[in-house]
Design a protein that fits this description.
Largest sheet of chain B: 9 strands, parallel
Helix content of chain A: 40-55%
Order of helices and strands of chain B: HHEHEHHEHEHHEEHHHEHEHEHHHHHHHH
Radius of gyration of chain A: 13 Å
Number of strands of chain B: 9
Number of helices of chain A: 5
Oligomer: heterotrimer
Strand order of the largest sheet of chain A: 2-1-3-4-5
CATH architecture of chain A: 3-Layer(aba) Sandwich
Chains: A alpha/beta (131), B alpha/beta (558), C alpha/beta (327)
CATH superfamily of chain A: Cobalamin-binding domain
Strand content of chain B: 5-15%
Chain lengths: 131, 558, 327
């Protein structure tokens, strides 16, 4: 039996739209992953520290409030600073194409926009994380 | 309503129709079986007839508009007397930018204002708070002080237009700023009209922009009811909402039931405080979603009106106005797609039509770029025109409740009411709305429904045009709104200047008085108004309340 | 691996977390990595100090996580660093888990002196109990002065996990009739301190009364010590100081009566038992698998050629020989 993939699903900043994050968390659980959902109002420090302590393989960031450029970058910077930048960072929510391109350049592995299916996310993570 | 002989004839005819249908296989695949259940999972019959509403008692169960049970409408003449208010939710960046957008919309014919605030404001933080990082103006306008409020409404006569403000946690403080600004404009408080959303129960359940725990939040809300009924009589001090519950993934039946349950909880809280029900009930208002299932939404609004008037009677209301379920509607954001955004124009038009046929008092239509960004000028104009076309060109406003008497609509209205009462019983069994929230009842129902919906979409049991069917792979090519980065700098400069120039001892004493009062039982509105008039900021005022009331921790329910 | 251990012992959270991952899944890790891990654990054991381990169990919805967060704060006030192991159920269908205890501890998450690790129950034969021992030893060796293990609910599995703790809290809430449930589950036998949380709810006096009556009847682990029943409201913090004092008092009591060394020894004994249980069950899964030795015996039993108890003895004596392979 292999160790399950561990994913931290996080809501950075003040955004309260958690419908998607919860649906994704549940779908990942149904696909056999261990999911730590951080809840709302997480600072970048809280998210990074959680991912470190839980030895997460993936951090999934959900942002629908428009604050993704600042907050996602903060998280990438902090991961680097703490030498935890091998943790894969994924993003989802309302993120315009231009911003998505910039974020991927900055180190976010993939951005999943509206219309993404949970199957997409599950296969992406299963494909990328080596266990 | 029908004679026995007539009904017998109908039943015979239906049997003949059913027999003629037997053996015919549906022409679509088995998976489409599901499509004959509506979004609330209610089974829909192929054909409705008089036999579906045989027991309907027109006089008592349907009635005429403007009379109990208000099924057909709260006013006797509805849109023949006055069209619904065309009120588009708007706000972004700094107060100056939003003021411009308001003038644009008013210039193009919108008839009411609706304010969207940014996240820091929604949570009662000033823009320079640590948690506000990156959030300024992104999903609404930033209001940190009375000064910003003054700019927001600059050049807009507050006695000539009503304003709805979507604000919950810090609603009392933001309302205080609006009041203070009106007074500065020289307008007496009995001349201003509008709404504050101020519905904390649904925040715990769905929208999540709460600050304080339930008990102090309810206290603040009843304070606003009391203050409003005495000093601001034209103001709706609450907009009891189902929109967000629906957006979080609930079914239409859940939206109906949970919203009305919340409403009754507020009424009970106010009555417990000693307010006479007829003093505040006329100024309770509601806010519903309008989703895709055309007839289900119409039935939902009708059922809501009937349920509310009957329940309010049971609670002892004597005035007619206390029985009216007046509501604002917003078309469903969650039903719109990022892919092929022009399709959203069609979706919104159909949803808006349903809301009008359902008798809404006020309507917001979403823009086609809803799934991508805040509305661009072009997109928001189309959204406004959609309402104007319905009002001027379709003729649906010529009569009240045009679908009244439709076998389908009446049967569905009855069914939804029945299902809602089932939920009411469950909630009662759990001890009421607040205990049910603490037990996670609503959150669980919503999480279940939203997961089910997502699975249906992924399995193609439910098709969404352009998303899981009829897709094209063209890039999205419509102009998107960009937030002006300079706006944040201007706003911050203004905030610093305000802090430097105001009378800090006046601020300190006002905040101290507020702190003392919040530990007691006095109505806090006058204290909050004093504080904002002294130019205490939103964040400073809320910090006092946070200290006294504590903060609410959201228990996560999947 | 050596570097990870070194920096973990210095208190680097990243390394501690990685070491925990290796250890907690040793049951599932590949055999090649095992030698590495065993040597790492030997180093860890040299640094184990025998810090207090508190087990927290109780029915779902009793507010365990909120209470754990409050207790952690009390330890921090005393200058102690706290390691929390939070266990949530693994889905029997998918093997995945929603590890949601951490969410309820958000107010302590920014405290650098607190480390929270979530684990799934991973189902029967998943080796949870033995894994928890390893995680606790790692946290002990890496500088945490108190360890709290929070289990899912009440059941035999939970009792096995919570045996690692020398002080166990059982958390109840008023009025749910769970005191009866607890007795059925044998939870009363393991409780050193009983807590009635959400004590602001109606029915609290009745529940406390029922518990005290039950305790008078002679339930409880240490017959010569009165088991305290403490009322708390974890949401507001009411009663937490009293609870913390009771925990510390129990630890002191044990150190006096049983002694620190024995407490440590019992932990090794407990862990050994769990590992042996794991290995035996692993072997039995093979034995009882299709074509396994046990299946042949079952056929014999059906044909009345051998009785059940003799067959069982045979499996224990000879298990591993015919057609099965042990790891």
């Amino acid at each position: 039996m292999n160790r399950p993939i561990r994913v931290v699903v996080a809501k950075p900043g003040l955004d309260g739209h958690d419908r998607g994050a919860k649906v994704v968390a549940r779908a990942l659980r149904d696909a056999g992953m261990e999911v730590i959902y951080t809840g709302l109002h997480q600072t970048p420090e809280m998210i990074v520290e959680t991912a470190i302590q839980e030895d997460a393989d993936v951090i999934g960031l959900s942002a629908l409030s428009g604050a993704h450029m600042t907050l996602f970058q903060d998280i990438l910077d902090m991961l680097k600073e703490k030498k935890a930048d091998n943790i894969m960072v994924l993003g989802g929510g309302i993120i315009p194409d231009d911003d998505a391109k910039a974020l991927k350049k900055a180190g976010v592995t993939e951005i999943f926009g509206p219309g993404t299916t949970t199957d997409n996310i599950v296969s992406f993570i299963s494909g990328k994380v080596k266990r | 309503m029908f004679t026995k002989e007539a009904l017998d004839e109908v039943k015979k005819q239906r049997k003949r129709w059913e027999d003629a249908h037997k053996g015919k296989t549906p022409h679509s695949k088995p998976a489409s079986e599901r499509r004959h259940k509506n979004l609330s999972n209610l089974d829909i019959r192929p054909v409705y007839g008089p036999d579906d509403i045989a027991n309907m008692d027109y006089a008592n169960d349907v009635g005429f508009p403007g009379g109990e049970p208000y099924l057909r409408g709260v006013h006797t003449d509805m849109y023949r007397g006055k069209p619904w208010t065309m009120r588009l939710f708007a706000g972004f960046g700094s107060a100056e930018e939003t003021n411009k957008r308001y003038k644009y919309l008013l210039g193009h014919g919108e008839t009411g204002l609706s304010v969207a605030f940014d996240y820091p404001t929604l949570y009662g933080y000033d823009t320079d708070h640590k948690l506000a990082r990156g959030e300024f103006g992104k999903c609404g306008v930033a209001i940190s002080s009375l000064k910003d409020m003054e700019i927001l409404f600059d050049g807009i006569p507050l006695d000539k237009i009503t304003t709805s403000m979507t604000i919950n946690g810090p609603a009392a403080v933001v309302w205080a700023m609006y009041i203070a600004n009106a007074q500065k404009q020289g307008i007496p408080l009995d001349k201003i009209g509008g709404t504050i959303q101020n519905d904390i129960l649904k925040e715990y359940i769905a929208q999540k922009s709460f600050i304080f725990p339930p008990e102090p939040s309810m206290r603040l809300i009843v304070d606003t009811f009391e203050f409003g009924s005495k000093y601001v009589p034209r103001w709706n001090t609450i907009s009891i909402s189902g929109y967000h519950i629906r957006e979080a993934g609930s079914t239409a039946v859940q939206e109906l039931a949970f919203t009305l349950a919340d409403g009754l909880a507020y009424v009970r809280a106010a009555v417990e405080r000693g307010l006479g029900i007829d003093e505040f009930a006329p100024r309770l208002s509601f806010f519903f979603n309008c989703h895709n299932d055309f007839f289900e939404e119409i039935a939902k609004y009708r059922a809501a009106r009937r349920i509310w008037s009957r329940e309010m009677r049971k609670l002892g209301a004597k005035k007619d106005r206390s029985l009216w379920m007046r509501f604002h509607t917003q078309t469903a954001g969650c039903a719109l797609s990022a892919q092929q955004p022009e399709n959203n124009i069609v979706r919104v038009a159909l949803q808006a039509l349903a809301a009008v046929l359902g008798g809404t008092q006020s309507l917001h239509t979403n823009s086609m770029d809803e799934a991508l960004a805040l509305p661009s000028e072009k997109a928001v104009l189309i959204a406004l025109r959609t309402q104007q076309i319905i009002a001027e060109e379709t003729g649906v406003i010529n009569t009240v409740d045009p679908l009244g008497g439709s076998y389908y609509v009446e049967a569905l209205t009855n069914k939804m009411e029945e299902e809602a009462y089932r939920y009411f019983e469950n909630i009662e069994r759990l001890g009421g709305v607040i205990p049910a929230i603490e037990k996670g009842f609503f959150q669980r129902e919503i999480a279940q429904a939203s997961f089910k919906y997502q699975k249906e979409i992924e399995n193609k049991e439910r098709l969404v045009v352009g998303v899981n069917s009829y897709q094209v792979s063209a890039p999205i090519d419509i102009p998107l709104l960009k937030i002006d980065v300079e706006g944040e700098k201007r706003h911050m400069a203004r905030l610093s200047k305000l802090r430097a120039e105001r009378n800090s001892s006046k601020v300190a004493s006002a905040l101290s008085a507020l702190e003392t009062a919040s530990k007691g039982k006095e109505n806090l509105m006058p204290f909050i108004i004093d504080a904002v008039k002294a130019y205490a900021t939103l964040g400073e005022t809320c910090a006092v309340l946070r200290r006294v009331f504590g903060e609410y921790n959201d228990p996560v329910i999947y | 691996m050596k570097d990870i251990v070194k920096s973990a012992l210095k208190g680097d959270n990243l390394s501690i977390a990685r070491l925990i991952s290796r250890a907690e899944r040793e049951v599932m890790a590949d055999p090649v990595g095992s030698a590495d891990l065993l040597s790492a654990m030997r180093t860890i054991h040299k640094k184990v100090r025998g810090v207090p381990v508190v087990g927290v169990t109780g029915v779902g919805g009793s507010g365990k996580s909120t209470l754990v967060a409050r207790l952690a704060r009390e330890y921090r006030k005393d200058g102690k660093r706290v390691g929390i192991i939070a266990i949530d159920p693994t889905s029997p269908f998918s093997g995945g888990a929603l590890l949601g205890d951490r969410v309820r501890m958000s107010d302590i998450m920014t405290d650098k002196g607190i480390f929270i690790r979530s684990m799934g129950t991973r189902g029967a034969f998943g080796g949870l109990a033995s894994a928890v021992y390893d995680v606790a030893w790692i946290l002990d060796a890496c500088g945490f002065d108190a360890i709290i293990v929070e289990t899912v609910g009440v059941g035999q599995d939970e009792i096995d996990v919570v045996k690692i703790a020398e002080t166990t809290l059982v958390v109840l809430v008023p009025g749910l009739g769970d005191s009866i449930q607890m007795i059925k589950a044998g939870i009363m036998e393991i409780g050193d301190v009983l807590v009635v949380n959400k004590a602001d709810m109606p029915g609290v006096e009745q529940t406390v009364g029922e518990l005290e009556a039950m305790l008078d009847l002679g339930g409880g682990r240490m017959k010569d010590r009165k088991i305290p029943v403490i009322r708390t409201v974890a949401k507001t913090g009411e009663g937490v100081i009293e609870l913390y004092a009771a925990l510390c008092a129990h630890r002191e009591y044990l150190e006096k009566t049983v002694g620190r060394d024995t407490i440590c020894r019992r932990r090794y004994e407990g862990a050994l038992l769990e590992i042996v249980k794991d290995k035996v069950m692993e072997r039995m899964l093979d034995e009882f698998g299709a074509g396994g030795h046990a299946q042949k015996l079952v056929d014999k039993i059906v044909r009345s050629e051998i009785d059940l108890r003799t067959a069982a003895d045979e499996i224990i004596q000879h298990g591993g020989k015919n057609g099965s392979h042990s790891k």
